[in-house]
């Protein structure tokens, strides 16, 4: 089994969190190769009392640098990690570092799947019926209508392959359920989605449908999608903060809080973005996962598991198959 | 004191909820005039044991009709209500009926404030620092950069006048804090907002800042704003549903729930859209409030109070003043 390549230098808490997450994933059966400064990573592995293969990368793209630096710094950890996939030595890549640089490295290093104009980020948001697959969650701020159809096909392939959703339904994010409601982009994309024979198109959905779980896949441009993702995460944090405050607002509430603590903790965990670890960049020719810079070890572990699973289910091939089907 | 004109035929629960809300608002000191079918409203008032002035309107715009029907049905309740404001007989309008028709009736009947290209809907979203004023929450799906500057000015005037916020800060909703992050609209609007001397422009904000309360006023196009508003409301409902489930998931949790019930109920109430009642349509020459079709009596009451307050603080004049200031 090919390992997943982890950009071990990426993220606010690297290399501590990346190495710790890699060791946990490895113990859970996921083969991992660390990519980064071999000296630094060897020391960190020793400190944590573990052992994992390392591929040396002499450079790193810092958060404040421009994404195009991946063109210049050929030896950056993200470039080396992507090259391992290209060369068939790794099954996928996970990075908690510079998101733009990861996208650029994947695009330049692996290339797009035929039929994909723009790779897109897929986010999983907890919903009342399980989860909602949101695509694009931030890769493309401005989109053409045809991009949204490709996003829909990729989101459908992901839901089917990774979570075995049967015939996933697709909704187009808009400001009213009726086909004539929306902005110019949505009005133009709606009939294209409706006409596509390979999609189970539900029609327009609204903001409230994201957590309600009205459809499996929600398609939108990367601007709206990124706002949605960050609002969904931010609001969950805000409400849990308020719930904690409410539970300490009186002696009576504090007593009750002791009894409900465990039940609420399980819920908070379900809402925690770290459960999902990182987000796949859909549409490039290999599994690439982009994580939060603030990722902790658990997020790294979950991202590595998810990336490994994407390879196991041959997601890239399934996206290719679906894109080759007649619209 | 001029009364607020209530489109008493509008909304899913009219005339029961509209009349009940009007009676409550009246008891709280808000003068109200009911607009609609005089026979129906008289009967409803008798049933509820109250008395309020009625202005007869022989027609109504039904939810399934097109907004442009306001041009044809001159005797529709929303048209009659708007005309009362135009004729100086009412201080403002509240409608829980057809939103598009209310906007059209206000636009045709009252007209725009000079300097406003597009009226916009302002929504109030609870935040960790009180509330966030979101504008545009749905009136204009496609916007030009200059519209966003006008929205910022109107949002600033509202926060100052209605809630006495001192020097409200304004954020531009985007997908990264840096000025170079965003879609074409945001990239073009950013320097205009930055250059405006009458605004306290904070810069870009992200989805997470909506409930965090990073700024007072968040400016965005009506597509993104409507998605944000409906997601914010929908997610709050979803999380409270999950909290209720968690609190009944075991005997232990159920016992604790008895003790924390009151504290959580106060929180749920704070998150309830009915607290805000309805949303003002900013930029027309009179206070117009647009409510949820599903509004209950409490939402109607709160909307009437808010509309009355808008008249008391001379909001329209304050928006005019601010728009006349040099940019």
UniProtKB/TrEMBL annotation, chains A, B:
<protein>
    <recommendedName>
        <fullName>Phosphate acyltransferase</fullName>
        <ecNumber>2.3.1.274</ecNumber>
    </recommendedName>
</protein>
<dbReference type="GO" id="GO:0043811">
    <property type="term" value="F:phosphate:acyl-[acyl carrier protein] acyltransferase activity"/>
</dbReference>
<keyword id="KW-0443">Lipid metabolism</keyword>
<comment type="function">
    <text>Catalyzes the reversible formation of acyl-phosphate (acyl-PO(4)) from acyl-[acyl-carrier-protein] (acyl-ACP). This enzyme utilizes acyl-ACP as fatty acyl donor, but not acyl-CoA.</text>
</comment>
<dbReference type="GO" id="GO:0005737">
    <property type="term" value="C:cytoplasm"/>
</dbReference>
<dbReference type="GO" id="GO:0006633">
    <property type="term" value="P:fatty acid biosynthetic process"/>
</dbReference>
<keyword id="KW-0594">Phospholipid biosynthesis</keyword>
<dbReference type="InterPro" id="IPR012281">
    <property type="entry name" value="Phospholipid_synth_PlsX-like"/>
</dbReference>
<dbReference type="GO" id="GO:0008654">
    <property type="term" value="P:phospholipid biosynthetic process"/>
</dbReference>
<keyword id="KW-0963">Cytoplasm</keyword>
<dbReference type="InterPro" id="IPR003664">
    <property type="entry name" value="FA_synthesis"/>
</dbReference>
<comment type="subunit">
    <text>Homodimer. Probably interacts with PlsY.</text>
</comment>
<keyword id="KW-0012">Acyltransferase</keyword>
<comment type="similarity">
    <text>Belongs to the PlsX family.</text>
</comment>
<keyword id="KW-1208">Phospholipid metabolism</keyword>
<comment type="pathway">
    <text>Lipid metabolism; phospholipid metabolism.</text>
</comment>
<keyword id="KW-0808">Transferase</keyword>
<dbReference type="Pfam" id="PF02504">
    <property type="entry name" value="FA_synthesis"/>
</dbReference>
<keyword id="KW-0444">Lipid biosynthesis</keyword>
């Amino acid at each position: 089994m090919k390992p997943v390549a982890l950009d071990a230098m990426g993220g606010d808490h690297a290399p501590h969190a990346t190495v710790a997450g890699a060791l946990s994933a490895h113990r859970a059966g996921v083969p991992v190769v660390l990519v980064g400064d071999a000296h630094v990573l060897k020391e960190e592995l020793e400190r944590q009392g573990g052992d994992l293969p390392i591929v040396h990368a002499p450079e790193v793209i810092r958060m404040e640098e421009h994404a195009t630096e991946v063109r210049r710094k050929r030896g950056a950890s993200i470039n080396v990690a992507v090259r391992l996939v290209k060369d068939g030595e790794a099954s996928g890549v996970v990075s908690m570092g510079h998101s733009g640089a990861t996208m650029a490295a994947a695009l330049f290093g692996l290339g797009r799947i035929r039929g994909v104009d723009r790779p897109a980020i897929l986010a999983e948001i907890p919903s009342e019926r399980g989860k909602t697959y949101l695509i694009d969650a931030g890769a493309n701020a401005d989109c053409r209508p045809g991009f949204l159809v490709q996003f829909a096909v990729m989101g459908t392939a992901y839901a089917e392959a990774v979570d075995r959703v049967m015939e996933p339904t697709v909704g187009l994010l808009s400001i009213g359920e009726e086909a004539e409601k929306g902005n110019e982009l949505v009005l133009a994309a709606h009939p294209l989605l409706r006409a596509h024979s390979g999609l189970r198109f539900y029609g327009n959905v609204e903001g409230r449908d994201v957590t309600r779980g009205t459809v499996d896949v929600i398609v939108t441009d990367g601007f709206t999608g990124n706002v949605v993702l960050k609002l969904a995460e931010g609001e969950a944090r805000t409400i849990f903060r308020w719930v904690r405050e409410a539970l300490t607002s009186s002696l009576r509430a504090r007593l009750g809080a002791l009894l409900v603590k465990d039940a609420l903790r399980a819920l908070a965990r379900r809402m925690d973005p770290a459960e999902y670890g990182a987000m796949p960049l859909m549409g490039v020719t290999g599994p690439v996962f982009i994580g939060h810079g603030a990722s902790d070890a658990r997020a790294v572990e979950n991202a590595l598991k998810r990336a490994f699973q994407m390879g196991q289910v041959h997601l890239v091939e399934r996206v290719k198959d679906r894109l080759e089907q007649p619209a």
